[in-house]
């Protein structure tokens, strides 16, 4: 398989004050390969969000090692932050309500590439808006409040990928969006993956239909422990664990 871009070994995480400390991740091992979509699935509270935040250095781990492109993230957190994009459940939380969409997408580009001309920034904004099927002509001058939830999520995705991240984390990106609008978001992710074949996509999702559609591999978490990891077909069509079978059965109800 392709290169490992992010590797976690023995990741432990605790929450809470000293006396009531509760462990939420138990010695989790995870590899994320360049260019793949790794889906992280599991019941509510199983640790999906915590694991992905720890992997990207947004939260500290209490045990274990995480390396980005072979370098421990404790020594180089800045580089990982800069080379990762984040998409969350609520798109309006990622877009400043006072800014037009153009500015929300352009701002990180200007920050990271002070040498880029106005035209170059503007061209990249248009390019990423087209990737998520938002016509730059109209949408670049809209404010978030002018957009539907699905459009706002696609604008948030455009913002997250504008600077060509090596890793894109999408945490339940469709769960707050109407069912009818979800397909365009999935299409946007597919288009981005084609345009950026080395970018790794880590997708946290409850929706096994979405996962089957987009993921190459799946990691199943249960109460902070890895139940199984395998290709999408292995995990969804021939699960090895009872817990995975339960998740699949529940999803088909
Ligand atoms: N900041 C925090 N402080 C204390 N406990 C936390 C914090 N964040 C998460 N937890 C706890 O850690 C456990 C794992 O939470 P996490 O959000 O990672 O699970 P999840 O699988 O993403 O859940 P969901 O699918 O409901 O979003 C849960 O018991 C949660 O209550």
From TrEMBL:
BP terms from Gene Ontology: transmembrane transport
Pfam families per record: ABC_tran
Q: Which UniProt keywords apply?
A: ATP-binding, Nucleotide-binding, Transport
| Membrane spanning stretches | none
- What name goes with this protein? ABC transporter ATP-binding protein
Q: From which domain of life does this come?
A: Bacteria
Q: What region holds the ABC transporter domain?
A: 6-248
User: MF terms per GO, please?
Assistant: ATP binding; ATP hydrolysis activity
In the record, the note on similarity to other proteins reads: Belongs to the ABC transporter superfamily.
């Amino acid at each position: 398989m392709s290169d490992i871009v992010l590797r976690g070994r023995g990741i432990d995480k605790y929450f809470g004050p000293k006396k009531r400390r509760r462990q939420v991740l138990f010695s989790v091992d995870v590899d994320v390969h360049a260019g793949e979509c790794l889906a992280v699935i599991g019941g509510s509270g199983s640790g999906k969000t915590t694991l992905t935040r720890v992997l990207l250095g947004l939260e500290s781990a209490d045990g274990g090692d995480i390396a980005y492109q072979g370098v421990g993230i404790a020594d180089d957190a800045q580089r990982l932050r800069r080379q990762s994009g984040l998409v969350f459940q609520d798109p309006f939380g990622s877009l400043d309500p006072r800014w037009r969409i153009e500015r929300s997408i352009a701002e990180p580009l200007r920050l990271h590439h002070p040498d880029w001309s106005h035209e170059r920034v503007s061209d990249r904004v248009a390019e990423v808006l087209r990737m998520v099927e938002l016509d730059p002509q109209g949408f670049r001058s809209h404010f978030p409040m002018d957009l539907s939830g699905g459009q706002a999520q696609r604008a948030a995705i455009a913002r997250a990928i504008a600077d060509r991240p090596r890793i894109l984390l999408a945490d339940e990106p469709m769960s707050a969006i109407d069912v009818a609008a979800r397909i365009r978001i999935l299409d946007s992710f597919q288009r981005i993956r084609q345009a950026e074949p080395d970018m790794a996509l880590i997708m946290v999702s409850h929706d096994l239909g979405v996962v089957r559609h987009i993921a190459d591999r799946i990691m199943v978490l249960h109460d902070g422990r890895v139940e199984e990891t395998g290709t999408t077909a292995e995990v969804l069509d021939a699960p090895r664990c009872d817990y995975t079978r339960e998740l699949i059965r529940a999803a088909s109800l």
